[in-house]
Specification:
75% of the residues lie in helices and 5% in strands. With 126 residues, the chain is mainly α. Helix 4 packs across helix 5. The protein starts with a helix and ends in a 6-residue tail after the last helix.
Length: 126
């Protein structure tokens, strides 16, 4: 359970940085509390997408992974972010990614920040 909370916090922080840095990734709400709640819910959706959909997509794209020397991972991360945006819209969450290029850059930002957050935050290995 602790690991799940840590991953959700890391995803929320990474999404917040991407929203802050890119004009094409937006999160809206009436007040700060509503924005934080929306951000946490979007982080949960992003975590579920990465847990369920991403491994299947990576398995199916394995030949492309070999062919592109792993660069297809950037595209897969962008597609997962776009899928998260679509699911958030369907759930009524005020989160939107505007286009593939914003998703690509956002995916890179989220990957770097999430990695840094996992280094900083404790996990269950202790």
């Amino acid at each position: 359970m602790k690991n799940f909370v840590v991953k959700t916090i890391a995803n929320a922080a990474a999404l917040a940085v991407a929203i802050w840095l890119l004009k094409g990734i937006t999160l809206s709400g009436e007040n700060t509390a509503r924005k934080v709640l929306t951000l946490i819910l979007v982080a949960l959706v992003f975590g579920v997408v990465n847990f369920i959909v991403k491994p299947v997509v990576k398995l199916l794209s394995f030949p492309l992974f070999i062919l592109t020397l792993g660069l297809i991972t950037l595209v897969i991360n962008a597609l997962m972010l776009l899928l998260t945006s679509w699911i958030a819209k369907e759930l009524g969450l005020a989160f939107h990614v505007d286009g593939f290029w914003n998703a690509l850059v956002g995916g890179v930002i989220i990957s770097v920040v999430a990695w840094a957050m996992h280094v900083i935050l404790p996990d269950e290995k202790d």
